[in-house]
Every structure is written in C-alpha cells, then in structure tokens.
Amino acid sequence: MFKGLREEIDSMMRRDPAARSRLEVVLCYPGFHALLFHRMANWLWRKDFHVTGRFVSHIGRALTAIEIHPGATIGRRFFVDHGAGVVIGETAEIGDDVTLYQGVTLGGTSWEKGKRHPTLGNGVIVGAGAQVLGPITLGDNARVGANAVLLKNIPAGVTVTGIPAQVVAGRPRDADEKDDFAAYGTPSADLPDPVANSLEGLLREVTELRVRVKELEDHQEEAKSMTSGYGPALAADDESAPAGKSKC
Asked: By the number of CB atoms within 10 A of the CB, which of 50, 58, 91, 174 ranks highest?
C-alpha cells in the first residue's frame, strides 16, 4: 500500500523549491497526506470495502481539503501542490509524474454509470483552478493552463489555455520528450493568448477584406468612366449614318 513513499517525497521536493527537507514534506504538505489517505482508501475500495474506503477518503478530505474518490486510479510520483479545493472523481485515471495545483477538478459531465471522468497521461500538469471535465484523455506531457476549462481530448505534449481551452500555438512535444518542469502548466511568462490570437486573426481578415472591397470599387468606377467616355462618340456616329443604315 505504501510502497515507494520515499520516491513520492523526493518527487515532490523536485517540483517544489520551497520544500527544504523530507521531514517538512511528511509533516506539512497536504498533497502528501491526501496521497496517503487515498492509498488506504483505494486499497479498501479494491477489496470491496466500499463504505470503509469512502469513510477513509472523507477523513482525508476533512484534513487536507483535497477530495479524491477511493475508486480513482493514481500512478506513481503524484503531486498536488497547495491542494485546497482539488476534486478527483471516481473513474479518473492518472498516470505517473502528474502534477495538479489548487482548485483543479477532474470531474464528470454525466450521471450515467461507467467511465465519466478524465484520463491523464504521464507527466501531465494541470494549473490552478482548471476544470477538466468528462471522459476525455490528456496525452503524455500535456499542459493545462490555470483556470482553463477543458472538455475535449488533447494530444501528447500540447499546452492548452482559455475557456473553452484551446491549443496554444507551438510545436507539440513528443510523448517521451523530456523538458523542464512547467509550473502551473505554463512553460513561459510570454505564453501566447489563444483568444488574443483569434482576435488578431479576425482583424487581419477584416483589413484584407476592406482592401479588396476598395479595389473592386475603384475598378467599378474606372469601368463606369470608360463607358461614359465612349457614350457621346457612339451617339454622334449613329446620327451621321444614313437613315435605316448603321455605321456598324
């Protein structure tokens, strides 16, 4: 049940520069406490002691403000940083080396039985306040920015932000590609805003359409002026022609 606790503690220290010792993590980190309670609750749940598992999970929630259903599947080196307000649903599946921040919800969007909650691949980071909802899949090393609302699958290595979450411009990383840890799911402070990018694209399109319309208007005016210039000459030729005959 508690196999690999030292590995869990060391992984938390690597992802939080504020952690100064293993003892500090053991005594003062609610994410570590929540993980311990979940390991116990999940073991009971898998042994069909469902009520007991839920009760242990409830105690963990009361002490840590992190709610993890005992039926959720969580891999190795899982880290909930700060932790308050995190909710993980019954059918959620979380891979190895996943990091969640405060206020994250891995929730369901259906009352139907069966798979209702997200599946997170290895190395996924979900920023503070993000809502990942439904039986969707996040590929390995995916990033979800703070306060994003994600309702659809995303491939490995991409970063999404916004409401609804959109893929940020940039090359998706390979599933097994290693990179620096991205706190809160944002790899850099100058991360482009997908909403702003969309607005800029619309403005460019409107500007191009205005230029095109102006060109068509100028062309139409030029055609009108040419037609009006030939008009009197054609009329004069018609008057000089013999009756009943045409110059043409």
From this structure: 91
Q: What is the CATH number of domain 5-192?
A: 2.160.10.10
Q: What whole-number distance in Å separates Cα of residue 231 and Cα of residue 234?
A: 5
Give CA–CA dist 132/23, Å, rounded: 32
User: pTM of the predicted model, to two decimals?
Assistant: 0.70
CA 140 to chain centre: 13
* Cα–Cα dist 46/194, whole Å: 42
Residues in the chain: 248
pLDDT in tens, 38-92: 999 999 999 999 999 999 999 999 999 999 999 999 999 999 998 899 999 999 9
Segments making up each domain of the chain, as ranges: 5-192, 193-241
What is the CA angle 166-170-172, rounded to 5?
85
Return the structure tokens found at 31: 């994410």
227 CB contacts (<8 Å, ≥6 apart)?
Answer: none
| Average pLDDT score over the chain | 84
> What kind and span of H or E run contains 197?
helix 194-240
Report pLDDT digits (tens) over 110-151: 888 889 999 999 999 999 999 999 999 999 999 999 999 999
- CA distances (Å), origin 14, targets 7, 30, 60, 157: 11, 16, 24, 21
